[in-house]
Amino acid sequence: xxxxxxxxxxxxxxxxxxxxxxxxxxxxxxxxxxxxxxxxxxxxxxxxxxxxxxxxxxxxxxxxxxxxxxxxxxxxxxxxxxxxxxxxxxxxxxxxxxxxxxxxxxxxxxxxxxxxxxxxxxxxxxxxxxxxxxxxxxxxxxxxxxxxxxxxxxxxxxxxxxxxxxxxxxxxxxxxxxxxxxxxxxxxxxxxxxxxxxxxxxxxxxxxxxxxxxxxxxxxxxxxxxxxxxxxxxxxxxxxxxxxxxxxxxxxxxxxxxxxxxxxxxxxxxxxxxxxxxxxxxxxxxxxxxxxxxxxxxxxxxxxxxxxxxxxxxxxxxxxxxxxxxxxxxxxxxxxxxxxxxxxxxxxxxxxxxxxxxxxxxxxxxxxxxxxxxxxxxxxxxxxxxxxxxxxxxxxxxxxxxxxxxxxxxxxx
Length: 413
What we know:
The chain is an alpha+beta fold. It folds into 2 domains: 1-79; 165-188 and 200-413, hypothetical protein PF0899 fold (2-Layer Sandwich), CATH 3.30.2320. It has 11 helices and 19 strands. The chain has helices at residues 5-28, 35-72, 81-85, 90-98, 105-118, 129-132, 147-159, 221-226, 229-252, 283-299, 314-319, and strands at 125-127, 134-137, 140-143, 168-173, 177-181, 204-208, 211-220, 271-274, 305-310, 321-323, 327-328, 330-331, 334-335, 338-343, 353-361, 365-370, 373-378, 387-400, 406-412.
């Protein structure tokens, strides 16, 4: 069976590792290559040349197949990326860098792919976007292998409310994204021969700019020596969970988070209200109804409409009723008929304030990840604790196309 370009690149990386081993041995022993080593060197160089030709041919073929799919609607079977990356190891890469070596094998190949995607060199361990993006499967969503990176992405999705509310996720992009905002045209009735009224406005735009989100993980050298898959998964899962929490805090918070993209509630044009009464009981339901009515009065109810409320409101909404003793306000994930979510991101008010929440159309929120992920390996900062510190950098951007698509409110009881 003909191999694809990724499999061929992995083979070439292994051959290059053999070449480096021959060279490094001679350098270490301060001598020239032996006759046998020169023969091996020539054989490996010839093998590299042959693989380069095969890689070039495979890449051209894959490009032609993609182009054919785009123009003719043909179905292209993509390479089995799971198969090609399942043996990628975080700890192997960390140990190679920690011991002063260069990345080798599959880890080196994936790092090179990340550098190509970033259009620049990357320090540490580069992860190309195809390793960290989710894909659809029959049982839901999962990350592309390897398992350690899959744990990171699965945790990012499972813990991140941003992945559940129905935002417009662009995936990984290369640079600032400028998105046109519809709504600049005006349509009006006119008499048969009269000039049509020109009431149109310029179309707006939404610019997504990358903001850095950095995570830290301190790993014992004893754990690194074990090199177990379970430990790798645990490290990456924890990183994904913590990053999801930070994204939620920035997106759903009541005020902007320093150095993060602007939150929904603080977007210019966002509708607002604060409850003026402090009656107990079902009063919180009237706040939710007022939020719905505020959006309806402005432009109607359409799109991916949902609530995101502070967890402080959870028990009140679970016990409240639309009509006393008749129908619950929140049941089976629905709040007054719309998706109801809870998060620690919206502010908790001081007494008598219960907390903040937002309601609106989440299809008007656009998010993108910029470039590949990058893990830096620092073996010095935590050396006194017999630990290696991993620093993971990701770049995200998000924004709201129209502030009036949301209402931010403060509920009192």
